[in-house]
Design a protein that fits this description.
This protein is α/β, with parallel strands linked by helices. The chain has a 7-stranded mixed β-sheet, sandwiched between helices. It is globular, with a radius of gyration of 15 Å. The protein starts with 5 loop residues before the first helix and ends in a 9-residue tail after the last helix.
Length: 182
């Protein structure tokens, strides 16, 4: 599941190098999965994650606040897999993403499960609903600012318990330091 865009891959590697970040772990050899990136506490998360996405030459789709897709960056962000989402209204995004998984031979959907950069009491469940209903595993990826590392975990299939699955994911992210802890 690669873009086969060597110039963008080189740009991503350059970006990580300039930021002094590295990638720990490898992407799984799977055709479909939901990639959860956490914790999300800063605009720098997007810069680091996009650089890693390009460096890994992933063909990933990701959802972002619709307002970032306006102006000169909109077309470029869509070309990099961006899907604009209006968060202030219900638009049945879970069903749309499940249908996308069903209609494609390959798909990586990258999400920030908090849904915002602000401190929240818990994750939104959309990432889990999408993975569970589409029958695809969840791949945790941590942005560890203490180590300056994009940490790729192991894919986890969903069970019938959101609570149990989220507890296992939280155990992975417990060792990850966000840009703005607390």
């Amino acid at each position: 599941m690669h873009r086969h865009r060597p110039v963008l891959q080189a740009l991503g590697r350059f970006g990580l190098s300039v930021l002094r970040w590295n990638i720990e772990g490898d992407l799984p050899d799977l055709r479909k999965f939901v990639l959860v990136v956490a914790p999300h506490t800063s605009n720098w998360d997007f810069v680091v994650a996009l650089s890693a996405d390009l460096a890994l030459d992933m063909e990933a789709s990701w959802m972002g606040k619709h307002t970032v897709f306006h102006g000169p960056w909109g077309g470029w962000l869509r070309g990099l897999g961006g899907i604009p989402v209006v968060r202030s209204a219900a638009h049945n995004v879970v069903a749309q993403m499940v249908a996308e998984f069903g209609g494609r031979d390959q798909m990586i959907l990258a999400l920030a499960p908090e849904g915002t950069r602000r401190k929240v009491p818990g994750w939104k469940s959309g990432y889990w609903q999408i993975a569970h209903q589409a029958g695809v595993p969840i791949l945790p990826v941590g942005l560890d600012f203490a180590r300056r590392a994009v940490v790729i975990g192991s894919p986890r299939p969903t069970t019938d318990s959101l609570g149990d699955d989220e507890a296992a994911l939280m155990a992975f992210f417990a060792g990850i330091t966000p840009r703005h802890p607390g």
